[in-house]
Every structure is written in C-alpha cells, then in structure tokens.
Amino acid sequence: MSLGQYPFLDAVTDFAGAVRAEDGSGSEQAHRRMLAAFPDAAPDELAAAAPELAALLSALPPGPRANIAVVVGACVERGADPLPCAGPVFETFATALDDALDFVDQWTEAAGEEDLPDNETQPDPALLARFGHRTTLAWFTLSDWERAALALLQHPDVRANFDGRERLRELHEELIETADWWSKGLEYALLVLDDEPLIALHRESGTGYRFRMSGLADNFQLHTLLADALIGGGHLPGEPPSAEAAAVCRDAPGQVSTRGSFNLVAPSGEWIWNEGTPSDIPVLDGTRLLVLDPEPYQRSWRGGRYFPEMVGELTLEGVLPAEESARWFAHVAPAKGPTEQ
C-alpha cells in the first residue's frame, strides 16, 4: 500500500509508531486522524489495521486501550479477520475486568453502601485522583470492552479457538455479585455452544431425535428451529413456524413474529425457559438431553437471532430407533406443573 492512498491505515501506522516511541502528542494526533478516516476505510485497510491495533493494546493506557479495542471490534464487524485480534482483546479485557473489580472493592471500602458511580458517564476527575486511573477507568470503560468482545465472539472460529472463556465468565460473575453489573450480551455470548450434540425426546409420542447445534444464543432461537425441524419436517404433528421465522433464526436478517410449539423440559421435569440459553439443558453421558412437552399455555415472541452476526445452526442428524429412545426416556422424570418449578 502506498502512503497517502490509505488515510486510515496511514493513521494507524503513525499511531502505532507514536505509541511505541511513547510520543503522547503524536499518538493523540494520529488517533484523531484514525477515527476521522475510519468511516471511509477500504476493506484491505481494515484487514491490515485490526491485528496491528490489537497487538498494541497491552502497551496502551487504560482509557485509550478500551477505545482501541472498540476500533478493533469495528474493523472485525466490517470484515477484518477476528482470529489474530482475539487473543490480545480478550487478554486485555480480562485485565480490565480484574481492575474494575479492584475499583469496586476500593469503592466499597471507602463509601460503604453508597451506590457505585454510573459507569455509563464520564468519570469525575475527583474519582481518578482518589482511586487511581487504572482501576477507575476500568470501571468506566466496561461497556466499551463489552462491545469489542461481542464483535469477536459472534464468529465461530474465535469461539472454537478461545481458551479464556471460563476466566471471562468468572470475572463477569464476580462483577454481578459485587457490583450488580450484568451484561446479558456478554453472558449469552460466553455461553454459546458450538458443534454440540443434543437429544430431544418428544414425551407424547415417545420418539427421540438426535441433533447438533451451533451458534444458538437463546432458547427462543432453539425452540423455533426445533419446531421447524420436527413439525416442519413432518416428524411431529402441529403447526410449524413459518419459513421466514426459521430463516431469521439461522442467518437471515431481521425478526419475525412466531409462536411456541413445545414446553422445553429438563429430564428432571423442571422447565427450561425460552429466556435462557441452550447451556441450561443438562448433560447426560456427554450429550444434552431435552424433553419436549405440550405447551401449558400459548407463547409468542419476535423470532430471530440475539446476535445478528452469529449464524445459528440446528441440524437433525437422525430419528432414534425405538430402543434407543426408550433408553433415554429411562432417565426422564414426570413433567412438573407451573407451581412445582
């Protein structure tokens, strides 16, 4: 690439050089140019810039670090390869979560039961002076880190090669417990299952079905695709979801009104709520086991994907022979009513 032809990538190169040279003024100027040029950046600029910026994250101060992580995520959303970026983003995100927990601890010690400051606003300079830039800015940039992480986690290759998921989940759960800071998007993205075997047992007919699922963020999405495969595929009676409702749960854009077909139930008889995730389905002998009961009441919702860029897949691999279905049903307790949950 020739200098001058690619304003965004040129600004990224200048920013990286200034950061490595510890040139604060130069990095600020290049950062402004970079953000100004981003909307018109060409695909090859974005592809080259994303890993270069990701590699800089650990060298940046806390505030700019979160902002650059967002830029990396934005490059990925526009087509840059997420894999070279994932490691640096998630490592620095974990550090930010740790630092945010330190801020919460310091705040609790100093302020007692007083509410934590709203971290969707700009930090008061007095907070920075009192609690330090590192921990304070970690608290106030959590939404930036969330945005960057979600841009990457919507890609199956990232999820397949990401070995720090459990650590991020643990840190997120600590923030829920200590600071009441909950990110539904982050929690759901970290729980997404890929290439996951599933046995679905239809209690009324005594039949069983073997599935494999990937990229399903919530049980609304799973429910619709189960009904499409089993009712739409002619295996079970009933009214299937529309083709449009099934498509938006896979890879089509938008949302479509749809209604329920089953009650999703664990082998113990407890309900598995549509608002939950497929990770709620219990594992038995290495396979998730789900029971499909009749709906106790009519449910309807706007069908689609919680993460618009995450492709959802539910593949019916086969109908179980009667003997195998019976073996799985041997682990299933009677259904429980609404008041028994």
Architecture overview:
The chain is α+β, with helices and mostly antiparallel strands and 341 residues long. It folds into 2 domains: 42-191, no CATH class; 196-340. Helix content is 49%, strand content 12%. Strands 1, 2, 4, 5, 6 and 8 form a 6-stranded mixed beta sheet that branches. A two-stranded antiparallel sheet has the order 3-7. A hairpin with a 4-residue loop joins β1 (196-202) and β2 (207-214). The protein is elongated. It starts with 6 loop residues before the first helix and ends in a 12-residue tail after the last helix. The model has no long low-confidence stretch (mean pLDDT 95).
Give the secondary structure arrangement, pairings included.
Layout: H1 7-20, H2 24-37, H3 43-56, H4 62-77, H5 83-111, H6 125-131, H7 133-140, H8 142-153, H9 156-160, H10 165-179, H11 184-191, E1 196-202, E2 207-214, H12 219-230, H13 243-248, E3 256-259, E4 263-265, E5 283-284, E6 287-293, E7 300-303, E8 313-319, H14 322-329
Parallel strand pairs: 1-6
Antiparallel strand pairs: 1-2, 2-8, 3-7, 4-6, 5-6
Helix pairs in contact: 1-2, 1-3, 3-4, 3-5, 4-5, 4-8, 5-7, 5-8, 5-10, 6-7, 8-11
Task: Please summarize what this structure is.
With 341 residues, the chain is of the alpha+beta class. The chain has helices at 7-20, 24-37, 43-56, 62-77, 83-111, 125-131, 133-140, 142-153, 156-160, 165-179, 184-191, 219-230, 243-248, 322-329, and strands at 196-202, 207-214, 256-259, 263-265, 283-284, 287-293, 300-303, 313-319. The protein has 14 helices and 8 strands.
